[in-house]
UniProtKB/TrEMBL annotation:
InterPro entries reported in the protein's UniProt record: AA_transpt_TM
Principal location listed in the UniProt entry: membrane
Localization per record: Membrane
Record-given protein name: Amino acid transporter transmembrane domain-containing protein
Length: 611
């Protein structure tokens, strides 16, 4: 199991895991005395922003040179990569040897600590090069490996109406792309082979320090485990539906949790590539199936009483003399007086753009991070066009009966079963991706840094990983099980986490990074020959000069980012209020979700007729 768990480890994590190892220097021709990066923790306060800029620029030049002869990837090549562009390697004997020396291979897992800290600078740099093998095409599929985004959109459109739904979803798409560009720009400024940026929190640390990194890591961990919770519960419900409620509900959930625990042992993004491709095509298959069936059959009326937008809004879904009200649509927000329900619908919408919190993790494993921008824009366009068409199509046929997740929206049992089986498979792949990154964030920042646990490159760290994966998935199950309203839980994650990572944190970080870049005056910067950072001033004066510096266009961009940041915070606050209110109401009303730990499915007897 330990071998299955760790694909050789990640050499970019702290090799020593010991802050006291920050000693030693290396001097050479043209190189000043400096603390060797392999002797530092992944973050060190002695490294200044100007140093990150300098080595990032060197790394970008080297990456451009190394990849100059690679096959060029066009826009269509991102969607359908050829065998020549799917995988690249640095292909040098030195790189392979140095990677093994740093614990990437199995032979050196038990290597003594004194040997590890004698790793040379060239070996350290080669290890950083060797781990970066993901392509732009792989990132496209990883970004679109999403399960909750497309299948909550019909529900969202039903809560806000045609016009607001299209406008909001389009606005979220454009802004998500803009935020992805900001995140990419900051990564390109601060990541290098010498000082790799591994996570979203690392970007924050290099700009604002630990005061920003720690809250971001906590929030990222919360989002990822809540996402796994959502998928765990929705998978359990889907399996119980496929089994026609004849299989104990808790058993349904446990089966899928165990599957997640086993698949969760996969670690590198490169090995997720095939599964991510498969998940995207399964999602498209679900969309095609549910649209075709919805166009030729009635809505799932009995399920609508529990899961539909009409149920959330208090809108006409109750039969009169056995006849259900006709499908209804609204051009604007439905006039039901349920402002909370509409807000929660909007929070379901932003789930489609919830991948920004792991963009840095994707870029950190790319052979050429410059290609990420192309993959990201194609992904955002795919999400906007395909997801919106799907949501609008289902809303057009099912109106207030639209359900989240939408694989439950069809009434014939055969279609319901096929859609839910595909949904379970695709959702499990997405949950495994989120769960692995989530646990890595927790383990690296709490386990290694605070609790002095062994790095994941060591054998003992690998064994701990195998043990912690089941604990992580069990905790995710418990969290999801105690919250009775699925759609409200989706809204909470969207408001408290996704809006922040996708819309408020990127401009906030960019304001700081760009201010530091603008504040640099002639004669300032990092001198590698003397290993010194020259600044003519410090403090608030420098920050003000940086914020107000540059051309008029740059000033307007900085001002826009401030407005953008504050607006996203306000929207997140409103969404959190709406979602938490719905959860409180669910507890007060004795929602069927409260029976989650029982053998009876929360939807049994309230979902569909098996005839």
């Amino acid at each position: 199991m330990a071998n299955l768990a760790q694909d050789g480890g990640d050499p970019r994590m702290s090799i020593t895991g010991d802050a006291t190892a920050r000693h030693g220097s290396l001097s050479g021709q043209g190189v000043g005395s400096f603390t060797r990066p392999q002797l530092l923790g992944i973050r060190d306060p002695s490294v200044k922003f100007e140093q990150y800029l300098h080595y990032a620029n060197e790394t970008r030049i080297e990456q451009d040179h190394i990849t100059a002869n690679d096959p060029k990837i066009g826009w269509l090549g991102v969607l359908w990569p050829s065998k020549k562009t799917q995988h690249h390697d640095y292909n040098t004997t030195a790189t392979r040897r140095d990677s093994a020396t740093l614990g990437m291979g199995e032979k050196n897992d038990g290597e003594a600590q004194p040997t590890r800290i004698t790793v040379s600078d060239e070996e350290w740099m080669n290890a950083q090069r060797a781990i970066r093998q993901a392509s732009g095409a792989a990132c496209f599929y990883l970004i679109t490996t999403d399960i909750l985004g497309p299948f909550g959109l019909a529900y969202s459109f039903a809560t806000v109406g045609w016009a607001p739904g299209v406008v909001l979803f389009t606005m979220f798409a454009v802004l998500a792309g803009y935020s992805g560009y900001l995140e990419w720009q900051m990564f390109m400024w601060t990541d290098s082979f010498r000082y790799p940026a591994l996570t979203y929190g690392d970007l924050a640390y290099r700009i604002y320090g630990n005061a920003a990194r720690i809250p971001i890591n906590i929030l990222q961990s919360i989002q990822l485990i809540l996402t796994v919770s959502l998928i765990t519960i929705s998978n359990g419900l889907a399996l119980s539906i496929v089994a026609k409620f004849k299989l104990c509900y808790v058993v349904c959930v446990v089966i899928l949790v165990v599957c997640g625990m086993v698949l969760g042992q996969i670690r590198t993004l490169q090995k997720f590539g095939f599964l991510a491709n498969l998940a995207v095509f399964m999602n498209v298959s679900i969309m095609v199936l549910t649209m075709a069936v919805a166009a030729h059959s009635a809505p799932n009326y009995t399920a609508a009483g529990v899961l539909s937008a009409g149920a959330s809004l208090g809108e006409g879904i109750t039969p009169v003399n056995g006849v259900y009200p006709p499908v209804q649509h609204t051009t604007n927000i439905p006039n039901t007086g349920s402002f909370v329900g509409a807000l929660n619908g909007i929070m379901n919408t932003v789930f489609a753009y919830g991948g920004a919190n792991i963009f840095t993790n994707f870029m950190a494993e790319m052979r050429r991070p410059a290609d990420f921008l192309k993959a990201m824009w194609i992904s955002q366009f795919f999400i906007w066009f395909v997801y919106m068409f799907y949501g609008l199509f289902l809303y057009g046929y099912q109106g207030q009966y639209s359900i989240s997740p939408s694989p439950q929206t069809v009434s014939p049992y055969w279609a319901l079963a096929i859609a839910n089986i595909l949904y379970i498979l695709s959702a499990t792949i997405a949950a495994v991706l989120y769960g692995n990154i989530g646990l890595k964030v927790i383990y690296t920042n709490i386990g290694v840094e605070l609790l002095k646990m062994p790095p994941l490159t060591q054998k003992s760290g690998k064994i701990l990983w195998v043990i912690l994966i089941p604990i992580y998935w069990t905790l995710a199950f418990v969290i999801g099980a105690v919250i009775p309203n699925f759609n409200a839980l989706v809204g909470v994650v969207g408001a408290i986490c996704i809006i922040q990572f996708t819309y408020s944190i990127p401009p906030f970080l960019y304001i700081g990074a760009k201010s530091m870049v603008n504040a640099m005056q002639p004669g300032e910067g990092y001198n590698p020959a003397t290993n010194t950072v020259i600044r003519h001033d410090t403090g608030m004066k420098r920050w003000i000069r940086g914020f107000t510096g540059g051309t008029m266009f740059q000033k307007l961009v900085m001002f826009w980012n401030v407005i953008y940041f504050l607006g996203a915070l306000a929207l997140g606050g409103l969404g959190a209020y709406a979602s938490i209110t719905l959860i409180i109401d669910s507890f007060a009303n004795g929602s069927p979700g409260l029976t989650t730990f029982s053998c009876t499915s929360p939807l049994d007897g309230q979902f569909f007729s098996t005839s």
